[in-house]
Amino acid sequence: MINVGDIGGTKSQFQIFNNHHTSGQFVSFENRNFESVDLLLDRLPIQPKSPDVTACYLAVAGPVKNNTCTMTNLNWLIDGKTITSRYPGAEVKIINDLEATALSIPYLEERDVHFIQGKCITPFENISVLSVGTGLGQATLTMNKESKLPPCAITGEGGHCDFAPHTSLELELLHYIWKQNQSDNNKQPVCLEQLISGQGLPSILNFFKHTTNNYELQNDPLPNANINAEILRLADTDPNSIYRKTVDLFLDLIANELGNMALRTLSRGGAIVAGGMAPRILPFINQVRFLSRFSDKDTFSSLLKTFPVAFCLNPKAPLIGLYSRYACL
């Protein structure tokens, strides 16, 4: 039995396979219902100490070193040694969730990927993956047709790099968020993840509310729970609303950073938006506007217009990447 899991900042999902590589039970959980990963693992349909478990492969949202990860947006420690004691004799492998997502790209089906530029991934070229979810993840998949080695995913914590504005409106946004950081005693520079992630939509909406003269909008309350779902619902209801402006600017920022990633690594193979937000924001895309922002890079604008650009729609992509890389070797 092989346990393959994706532990994100908000949700976790697991797929159980038998040793003949047949897919078994799939389960998912809301992380807020558990105080630790150990309590979450207790809920799996696998008995601790079971000799039937031959492998446990986990993708986790945070930097991994020595098979251990302190998660970035969740106060959990994922320790390979602890998991090995749970499943004695099993192979335990922990990798970054963006590494797993990037590794899934060659194995995704046509229905899993929606292209807005180009029609398919270009084989044996670099591929950039920008994952927009609870946090902002980045990875580059490299493939070498001269080598017999499998594709390699290079990950980092680029979501915590500084945010750089592209327009005068974004310069105002930067100043607004910077002031918020100072008033919250954060005293930190504005990073990409503050604007391109699950926390980004509410931050951008508050920026527009702050700059409007409409008193009702300034004091219009939104629910603390599922606030992103409510913003997207209101944006869909009225294309001229402040909520639609919020989503449009959010997409501009995604397109801009996706273009930055593609240019840094010359991702001729493709530039892909993944993560939990990807399928939710895809219906709001103005394709011309998005691709214009993606390719607006001075000297290399023409080159970026030749790169495939797509959205990953399969929420199980990290599980597919994990299983394809480790369980099928």
Structure summarized in a few sentences:
The chain has 329 residues and is an alpha/beta fold. The protein contains 12 helices and 14 strands. α7 packs across α8.
Task: List the topology elements.
Elements: E1 2-7, E2 11-17, E3 23-30, H1 37-41, E4 55-60, E5 64-65, E6 68-70, E7 77-79, H2 80-86, E8 91-96, H3 97-104, E9 113-117, E10 127-132, E11 136-142, E12 152-155, H4 168-183, H5 200-211, H6 215-218, H7 227-237, H8 242-265, E13 270-274, H9 278-281, H10 287-295, H11 301-304, E14 309-312, H12 317-327
Parallel strand pairs: 1-4, 4-8, 10-13, 13-14
Antiparallel strand pairs: 1-2, 2-3, 5-6, 6-7, 9-14, 10-11, 11-12
Order of helices and strands: EEEHEEEEHEHEEEEHHHHHEHHHEH
Total strands: 14
Category by helix and strand content: alpha/beta
CATH fold description of the largest domain: Hexokinase, domain 1
Distance between the termini: 15 Å
Helix content: 25-40%
**What's the architecture of the largest domain, going by CATH?**
3-Layer(aba) Sandwich
How much is the average pLDDT? 91
Count of discrete alpha- or pi-helical segments spanning 4 or more residues: 12
The coarse overall form would be globular
Beta-strand proportion = 15-25%
How is the main sheet built? 6 strands, mixed
Question: What is the count of structural domains?
Answer: 2
User: Low-confidence segments, ≥5 residues, pLDDT <50?
Assistant: none
Write down the Rg: 20 Å
CATH class of the largest domain: Alpha Beta
Neighbour order of strands in the largest sheet: 9-14-13-10-11-12
